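Minutes, methods subgroup
Present: GH (chair), OT, SY

1. OT presented the first of two proteins processed in the latest run. Sequence and structure tokens recorded below as shown on screen.
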Amino acid sequence: MPGDIHTYELWIATLACVGGFISTLEWISNRRQLKNDGLFSWAVFETRGVVVKPEPLERLLNGLVQYCPFLGLLVLRLAAMLCLPVALWLGHGSTAVLIIVFGSSLLMHFRCPFGMDGSDQMLTQIFGALLLGNLSGSDLGHRAALWFIGAQACLSYFTSGMAKAVSPHWRDGKVVFAIFNTRTYGYEPVARLLKNKPGVTKSLGRGAVLMECIFPASMLVGFPACLIFIAWGVAFHIMNAVVMGLNSFFWSFVATYPAVLYCSVVISVWLQPLIHRLPFALFGPA
């Protein structure tokens, strides 16, 4: 049976909170850039001409994204990240904490539309789905949240894989070496190891493309076969964290795996009667 849906939610929230905590600490450590003379100055970003209605909401948002209020919000977000797994475990206060976490996520996207990557977007969707599930107050709402998170993970991998698949540079492995040979996302020992090894880089590139494209099958193959995809995802993101420094991607995407596991287990339960009846349908009674 699928098990307690709240256990799956607790695992998702805990893993996502680790990633969110790290990401928020990075914002606070770079707070100098949020000042009016910094790289991410609101005095510059507000010239984007984004229209917010009604006007009172616009004034509220403009007030919250100023340096001091926004820094205070980031500190509050850190505290909320620490409290959320505890609140879910105790079964009290999780909705209020999720409102803070999700609301601060949206405000961070509004405050700094540049420099936010896929891991931040995934975390926002995870916390948003958990919040809606909690607000529903029903098992159906909680299940829908898990299905949304699992489906979003599959969609993210599939679109990423398809985008790579149409590129000849990914298929011939040139992109793999090029990434590892950069200063931003590269790692010199790995770049030296892969240099002049087109067969290895081609295998790595095609392997990543293939697994990303077929990752949606993780929810269709049932349990325990789905663990193969989950194990690949964990290994893939650990490698990216160590070699490319994409530590936030590890936590945000691995946080979706309990939902993928839940959906796969549910599908296994659904398919069991069909599998048991299949020999009878094909060959008739023994």
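2. SY then presented the second protein from the same run.
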Amino acid sequence: MHSMSQLVAGMRREGMLAGTTKFAQASLIALALSLGSTIAQGEDRARTELDVHLWRYDAKTSAMVETRFHVRDGRFVAEPPDERSSARNAARKKLDQETYRRLQDAASARADPLPEGELANALKAVAASKSYGEPPEGRVLSSPDGRYAVLSPRFSHPVVVNVNTLETYRLLDKSDPLEIPMAWSTDSKRVAFAPSEASGNSSVFDVESHARKPAISSEKRWVVALAWSADGKQLASLELANRRLHKSPIGLLAASSGHPDFRNDLVLNVYRLEGGVTAPLKLERNLTEQSNYDYWIEWH
């Protein structure tokens, strides 16, 4: 998209302003500026189009049921599940599995065993996931190009590993009692993550400079999913907000017996890395903490 000055200069170069009065020239320039602004806004809206996938546990079928929210222009509609997006999600998880296998192979191919340290401890902790009934690759998040992986084992701090060189860098200095939402940028140079103790703030780790960037500030919310835009300038954050006790008769009875039913609203925020945030968009109300959910954000 050309700047407004380039647009006006082009009009003069093409003779579009020749032979007109100053008033007419001013009107044409104003029209061009208005048109250019409209186009720019349209491009900006196109960059914020995305889908939010919410899976919730259905006790009747003993399966996870999906709701897909299509978001555009600050509005959303609930749409049927998309088989193609499900296939892309499966491919993403397959990449995690393949990158984990490559990391294991690279560690095994060393002439000497891995010394005790960040990588050895992280690999042991990830492998221990089997004892918790989950696959180890479920604790691995591969970068899109497969060069890097984040290992986030339970009861241990998360680390970033260069799969080729086995260089390892800490994301946090301690473990997190809850799942840490993470997302790689599409160019595989940055990973965003939101520790639970950060209360809604997300940090960015740059794999080239090995540095953690300042946090992206939010209100005190519980972040459950993150996703980068294709140009790397925006970060979508799915958050649980407005935590409250469910005050129905059954809910109050459960609370009195020591099992309170807390509810949250599911909110989408889109942060600009250079500063600024879109208006929060409330997608769903009254998600109970007594149920299981899974989340995924997919940019268009």
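Chair's summary of item 2: The chain has three domains: 4-42, 52-81+180-300, 82-175.
Next meeting: continue with the remaining queue.
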